[in-house]
Predict the structure.
Amino acid sequence: MAHSKAEIAFEQAPDWMVQACNDAYFHHMWIYAQTSRPEGTYILAYGSIWVFKDVESAHPPKYLDNDGNGEIDLIRKDHSCNVLWDADNAFNGYFPLQRGNLPTREQASTIQDLAVDLIRREEKIFGGRQGFFKALAATGHGIPDQDSAMIPPLEALKSGKNP
């Protein structure tokens, strides 16, 4: 799968973080958003692409592949990593291992901060607000098609406000 330079322009995670959070065969990951809390730093990692060596050698050593929605990890101050939530579920307010499947107030706040940081990073990558919305339109999916946590900050951005 081919990806544009903009799609891989997110911050690449340092090696120690990849090793702490990732399956062994993945050699790189990208940080799509992050937010700090007293317990550590929450990151939205992987996003839509991972880079890894193809085990069948059918592709060059660094092959871009679509990996779905990513995950949300907690990086503690001791550099340990806790893989917490599937990003698609979390960004839609679904926490399957919790009573009622709903996020706590703290979890909802963390997800909201990640959503805003993700939009801020994407806006920078695509050259500003206009470029960002042009890239979003090119996907064929509008604001209403996005995960529920993304809709309010995207609507704010579209109306000229900061998310």
